[in-house]
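Team,

Forwarding the record for the chain on the shared tracking sheet. I've put the sequence and predicted structure together so nobody has to dig through attachments.
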Amino acid sequence: MAIVDTTSTNTAVQDLFNTKVNTAQNNVASTASAATGNQSLGKDAFLQLLVTQLKNQNPLSPQDNGAFVAQLAQFSSLEGINTLNDSVNAISSNFSSSQALQASSLVGRSIITQTDKALVDTSKSMTGSVAVTSAVGNVSVKITDANGNVVRTIDMGAQSAGTADFIWDGKNDAGEVAAAGTYTFNATTKNDAGESVALVTSLPATVTSVTLSKTGGEMLLNLAGGMGSVKLSQIQTIGT
């Protein structure tokens, strides 16, 4: 009975395998280098590496089925993440475009937003509001001009918790029409200890332009008369 020298056979097979592996490694290295240059391993590069590995696996020690399944699962996960990222980016882009369109439609229109300053045309009445946190005996709104002079004080009387509106007819305390310009509105009340407590006011403003965010954040509405900017979400009422 002939005896087969399995050692020499295995050695020959191993040598052949090593030759093929060396060639494959050069190809894999090129693929991996390109992937590294792009800072990511794309699905095409992943597939190429996987197929190269299968073609050049050691016949004396083939890849374990469990490991192969794990690699396929990894590829499936990679593909799913890429698809999810594309979907999220598309949604984000559509949302930003919709928000930009909505904001641009406000240019030239009057809004009510949370602020203590307003550009006032004193030839006509203007309406503002005060946020009252709890029932109080009296709310007072002190209106001062750009020089800090008190032009008018409006006593609103007792107010319950909620939003309380006030109207300024554009006149000072002497009954004279005040000059048009920028005015500051300070709303206050008193607590049980008789101490003055500041309240938040909301006043009208006109939108002149829109500033789009370059980082995907909320866009800003720029207001007339140097009143600064407010976020789209800070608008309480939209007028004509």
